[in-house]
């Protein structure tokens, strides 16, 4: 059942955050092993390993902020389109990495102007309502925009944006133009809720890239089930009166979490205090990426 649209700021602060979050960050252009940074599946594999460790109590709840230098992450259903392999190869030839992700949804572009925000949390006792977690992350993102751009934040609505790529009930939009999508993945003892936030660059260009992928992958067959992307439904926060850079947006995220009483612990401090460390280039992360590739390859 589709959720009713609502104004996020008027809805108020949603949900409870942990008392402490360990912060892991990965910028799209960083050089933590060239191969691991370029591999589209490594950030997803990193979160799989990290989520297991959160569930096992090896590490407290986590905030993961990351971007990728340039790629398109497909949903499993996208990869089943008749000419998906050829459409993916065409993107690769343009220098745009591709991969099929395991977390559901449909195709999304990733680049240094798209900031991914993930909360990795242990499963609580009792029933888990994913709507609560979606509203929690939506409120954090909206309040982060409000730090420097309250007028833009006041216009943010949570609703499915028809014509956007990877549409969902908890799309975040201003004036009917989507800048964020939210998804969730569960493991046996932990889970994560994840948002991709288009901060800078052209929403129209990103929408056109995904529209073209579907045109090529479906080979013009209008009877197939795939998102009919209208590029004009996508925009970056910078185009909508919001923060203009990744640094400004992530600083807002940190400020909001701190204002809600959550202690943000740098990963370096966690390593000093407990010895726990996890990097993109760690063998267990690369092995998890290999397994994901084999399991979800077309």
CATH superfamily: Bira Bifunctional Protein, Domain 2
The count of strands amounts to 12
The coarse silhouette is globular
Radius of gyration: 18 Å
Major β-sheet, in short? 9 strands, mixed
CATH hierarchy, class = Alpha Beta
Can you characterise this structure?
Residues 57-245 form the BPL/LPL catalytic domain. This is Lipoate--protein ligase family protein. GO terms for molecular function: ligase activity. The structure is a single chain. This protein is of the alpha+beta class. The protein has one domain (6-296): BirA Bifunctional Protein, domain 2, CATH 3.30.930.10. The protein has eleven helices and twelve strands. The protein has helices at residues 8-11, 34-38, 42-55, 76-79, 84-93, 130-148, 150-153, 203-218, 246-259, 267-274, 283-296, and strands at 6-7, 20-26, 62-66, 71-74, 97-100, 108-110, 114-122, 156-158, 172-174, 177-186, 190-198, 263-266. It has a nine-stranded mixed beta sheet with strand order 1-8-9-10-11-7-3-2-12, with helices on both faces. A three-stranded mixed beta sheet has the order 5-4-6. Strand 9 (172-174) and strand 10 (177-186) form a beta hairpin. Helix 5 (84-93) crosses helix 8.
Summarize the structure.
It contains 11 helices and 12 strands.
Which key phrases capture this entry?
nine-stranded mixed sheet; three-stranded mixed sheet; 11 helices; aa-tRNA-synth_II/BPL/LPL
Which helices and strands appear, and what pairs or packs with what?
Blueprint: E1 6-7, H1 8-11, E2 20-26, H2 34-38, H3 42-55, E3 62-66, E4 71-74, H4 76-79, H5 84-93, E5 97-100, E6 108-110, E7 114-122, H6 130-148, H7 150-153, E8 156-158, E9 172-174, E10 177-186, E11 190-198, H8 203-218, H9 246-259, E12 263-266, H10 267-274, H11 283-296
Parallel strand pairs: 2-3, 2-12, 4-5
Antiparallel strand pairs: 1-8, 3-7, 4-6, 7-11, 8-9, 9-10, 10-11
Helix pairs in contact: 3-11, 5-8, 6-9
């Amino acid at each position: 059942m589709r959720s009713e649209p609502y104004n996020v700021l008027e809805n108020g602060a949603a949900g409870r955050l942990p008392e402490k979050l360990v912060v892991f960050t990965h910028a799209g252009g960083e050089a933590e092993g060239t191969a691991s940074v370029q591999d589209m599946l490594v950030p997803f594999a990193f979160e799989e390993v990290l989520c297991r460790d959160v569930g096992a109590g090896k590490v407290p709840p986590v905030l993961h902020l990351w971007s990728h230098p340039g790629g398109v992450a497909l949903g499993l259903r996208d990869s089943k389109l008749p000419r998906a392999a050829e459409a993916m190869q065409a993107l690769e030839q343009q220098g745009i990495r591709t991969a099929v992700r395991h977390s559901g949804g449909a195709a999304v572009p990733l680049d240094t102007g798209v900031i991914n925000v993930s909360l990795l949390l242990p499963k609580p006792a009792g029933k888990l309502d994913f709507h609560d977690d979606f509203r929690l992350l939506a409120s954090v993102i909206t309040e982060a925009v409000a730090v420097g751009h309250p007028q833009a934040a006041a216009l943010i609505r949570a609703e499915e944006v028809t014509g956007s790529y990877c549409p969902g009930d908890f799309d975040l939009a201003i004036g009917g133009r989507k800048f964020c999508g939210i998804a969730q993945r569960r493991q046996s003892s932990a889970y994560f809720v994840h948002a991709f936030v288009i901060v800078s660059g052209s929403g129209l260009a990103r929408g056109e890239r995904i529209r073209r992928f579907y045109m090529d992958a479906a080979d013009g067959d209008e009877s197939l089930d795939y998102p009919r992307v209208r590029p004009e439904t996508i925009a970056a926060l910078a185009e909508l009166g919001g923060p203009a850079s990744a640094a400004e947006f992530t600083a807002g995220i940190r400020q909001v979490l701190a204002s809600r009483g959550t202690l943000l612990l740098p990963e370096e401090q966690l390593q000093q205090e407990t010895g726990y460390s996890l990097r993109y280039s760690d063998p267990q992360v690369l092995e998890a990426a290999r397994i994901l590739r084999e399991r979800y390859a077309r």
